[in-house]
Amino acid sequence: MSLPRSFAAFCLVATAFITQGVSSSPVLATVYYEAKCPDSRDFVVQQLLPAVLRDPELVRPVLIPFGKATVTTTSSGYEFSCQHGPTECLGNKLHACGIALAESRTLQVSYAACMMSNYTDVESASEKCAGELGLSFPTISDCANGQAGNELLRAYGNVTSDLSPALTFVPTVTLNGIRGNQTAVLGDFWEQVVEMSLETKSESRRSGGTDGGY
Question: 137 with 98: CB under 8 angstroms?
Answer without folding.
Answer: no
